[in-house]
Amino acid sequence: MLSDELKAQIRDSFIALKSDMSDFNVRPSQNKMIAEISKTLCGDYPDSNKILCVEAPTGTGKTFAYLLSGIAIAKANKKKLIVSSANVALQEQLLLKDIPEAQKYCQVDFEYALVKGRSRYVCIRNLINLCEDSATDSSLFDSSLLFDEPPGKYQLEEMAELLEDYSAKKWNGEIDDLMRAPDHTIWQKINCNRFTCTAKSCEFYQDCAFFKARKQITKADVIVANHDLVLADLATGNTVLPDVDESIFIFDEAHHLSSKALSHFSLSTGTEFIKTSIRQAKGVSDQMCKLTEQDLPDINIKQIDDYLSDLSTLLKTLDFDEDIYLFDQGMVDQPIKDISKNLFISISNIQNKFCALRESWADYLKIKVIDKSIGDPINTASGECEQHLSSIVELLSSFLKSDDSTQSPHSRWIEKNTLANKKTNYSLYSAQTDISGNLDALIWSKATGVILTSATLSSLGSFDRLNKQLGLKKPENQYLRLPSPFEFDQVDFIIAKFKSNPTQVFEHTKEVASQLLKRLNAQEGSLVLFASNKQMQMVADMVESKLDCDLFIQGEYPKKTILEKHMTLRKQGQGSIIFGLDSFAEGVDLKGDNLTHVVIVKLRFSVPTSPIDKTLADYLQSQNRNPFMEISLPDASLRLIQACGRLIRTETDTGKITIFDNRLVSKFYGKQLLAALPSYNIVVEP
Prior knowledge:
Elements lengths: L3 H17 L7 H14 L9 E5 L6 H15 L3 E6 L2 H18 L6 E3 L9 H12 L17 H15 L16 H7 L18 H11 L2 E5 H9 L11 E6 L4 H8 L1 E5 H22 L8 H15 L8 E3 L7 H34 L4 H29 L9 E9 L5 E9 L3 H9 L4 E6 L9 H7 L7 E4 L10 E4 L9 H15 L5 E5 L3 H11 L6 E4 L5 H13 L4 E5 L16 E4 L10 H12 L4 H18 L11 E4 L3 H4 L3 H6 L5 E4 L2
Parallel strand pairs: 1-10, 1-11, 2-4, 2-5, 3-4, 5-10, 12-17, 12-18, 13-15, 13-16, 14-15, 16-17
Antiparallel strand pairs: 6-9, 7-8, 8-9
């Protein structure tokens, strides 16, 4: 229960914030959010999980609501508070502005830290070995086992500079703190990797960038992360973040959590990757066996090559759609399944033998001293091999499984592409279409408490879509939809009179161009949101030379640069227009005169184009369910609200929204979409 002492701490923190922050506005919604977070996390709802979903519109002050209440509750219960965001912009705002600000007012002392994945840190041992090996003419280790192509002279010089800077403490070992990052292929060989890391057994453990950061995290009360890192860490054994059952999670921008999770619970491998991985495993085995004087395990490369050749011959006969072959309802064709089984048995056997050999190698190193120039690279290469073999076996295993007919199936597919050496490579994929069970097992059932929040969390006025995506059961959790602090009834939401329907692509595109020239004010700040890059480019070609102000088109400059140029022009009293896609429909904060007109070219319905989406849509249809009503319509509602949300960012903002999609008035679902919008003044042009 929420104790009087804890209640007083939170209240006093909030009073200090109100009285000291210069631009603070009293918001009843913020008070309500603080109260509900406090009651939920403290177990004041006895028949409910400590999970709260909060839709907190722009201007609510949700960040300070969850920080001031969450920090106090976490500290009182001796738990860690993990704040996770979906993008770098919010992460930076939390680290550089919001959390330091919260420290001023919070009635309890706390420390905070940013957590990053292992791969963002250099492995100093690997970096030293790379530099030292390159400095000698004859290395005892066959470098081809680590590199497809040896590093070039300029790359080695770069690595030597990195080593020098790290030794002189000019560089902290994080890739994000480099002015220019090394090539991806080189960084992969020198970064931290859980398969190659020897942790406390490493002579550089005390000076390791990753473990130094880990120590900082153990001291921190508040840990700032992102959804990708949280999901990756929990899916691979929870080795970076504090234990889930010792943590309270706050997922800001929680509407992104489902799509992020889908990508993390997917598997892939490729025919060429299998070939190189088996050869690497044999080469590393050779080196270990020579040194330990063991018999070489049987790694039959020809057998694997023959199976892969049979597979490639079979795949050539398939009818690929834009280089993708999607298995119906995730059921792999039997002939492909048969070859996959042969590969699975052979590679699993190799994996078992390799893991046993690696264990004996580790035992050998405990009693024998081996030259570092060969021992360390073998350790690194053998770790890579284990990682690669494991990923191959996992994918092949998924291809052989039969899904539960009562559950949404896996999506399984094959993509073909041509490599630089002109060889045809086939990539095999397997992905879940429903990750709700994973999230429940990893987070919902274990965490001390969870707050999921976003400005747009519900769809069509309901949390049903979110619950299905994330595996949350409505009766077991708390839900809160807060009203916006802004007045929307003075904002016109104009459904433009359009002859063409967005499905008539050519006619609609021409009409969009002509309507924009009539409706856009060259003296104002405008944002035009497109659902298609092709349509955006076509319209830009038609209108750019006829506009009397600057036009910025997404892709011509980085997003940040476009926004800066736009605001500079507005400060000078000049008009500016931005053409953007989905990324401009979310997270863009153009206050006041920077934006007074948002144009939405058409409703953003998600067409099932990805293999995962297609498999799920086909499954729903097979169950006599409607994927349009269950997926496309709720998602379109959320995207429409997000797009409209670019206009009013403060209490004093004004402007209008225009949409060029007559389906809002001609289709049965139009009323549902309009009803879910804030209380705009809906104007239907006659």
